[in-house]
Amino acid sequence: MTRIRIQKYVAATAVAVALVGAPTVSYAASQGKAAHGTLQRVAAEKAPSARIVAPGEHVKVPGGAEIWLTEEGKHWTTPDHPEPQFRSVVDGNIDRGMPGVSLQTEGVAGHYFLSGLYYGGKGTASRVEVQTKDGVVQGKLLELSGKPGWGVWYATAEVPTTGDDGGLDYFGSVTVHDTKGKIYARLKLN
User: Fold this and answer.
1) What DSSP character marks residue 56?
2) How many CA atoms lie less than 13 Å away from 96 in the CB half-sphere?
3) Where in the chain are all domains bearing CATH 2.60.40?
4) pLDDT tens for residues 119-137?
5) Which CATH number fits domain 51-188: 2.40.50, 1.10.287, 2.60.40, 2.60.120?
6) Relative to the CA of 150, which of 24, 79, 128, 184 has its CA 20 to 30 Å away?
């Protein structure tokens, strides 16, 4: 093959890769005019929201934990603690009229099982982020149907291999965002 043929193949391959790698760009050419790129507007994605669960419906969490909600609060088990644990939303320990987030951490098979309540924020809870010394961990939200004024979040995070004693100083904050990206509720730990 000559050098010119190789250059043509390389150029054609580069154009094909560029077209495949840029799905949000369309190319159009009218007769007699040069082609140009136009950016297509992608319809805004609907913001995620909490998964709606039935009272008592068990949700399995990676690592072996399970969570379920009742009108009284959050219930959970882990492989190391198979007896159900409970966090009430009706015993007066939280004020559902004020934004708040709680955090429970447990070591489960080389991971942290993180969970807690969120409550009292304005808007619709959409997503949760846990800031750790190693970065941000994304969690998931659960709620009962209707508008209970509270929900449960959960996530799993790797246990750091060095430099941490496993205490709460590893965690910086827990932030629940609403569907508009604003803060629904936040817990700052450090």
Assistant:
1) T
2) 13
3) 51-188
4) 999 999 999 999 998 899 9
5) 2.60.40
6) 79
Q: Is the pTM of this model over 0.70?
A: yes
Q: Which of 171, 107, 176 is nearest to 141 (CA)?
A: 176
What stretches of the chain show up as alpha helix (H) in DSSP? 3-21
106 C-beta neighbours (distance < 10 Å), count: 17
d(CA 114, CA 78): 11
Spatial distance between the Cα atoms of 64 and 60, rounded to a whole number of angstroms: 7
Q: Taking Cα atoms as reference points, which of 87, 49, 44, 10 lies closest to residue 179?
A: 49
Tokens of 137: 């961990």
Q: Give the span between the Cα atoms of 134 and 100, in whole angstroms.
A: 24
Whether residue 56 contacts residue 70, with contact meaning beta carbons closer than 8 Å, is answered with yes
Tell me the two tokens of residue 160.
């750091």
Alpha-carbon distance 113 to 64, whole Å?
9
Look-up: residue for tokens 């961990």?
137
Kindly report, residue by residue over 43-67, the tens digit of the pLDDT: 345 678 899 999 999 999 988 999 9
The amino acid at 133: K
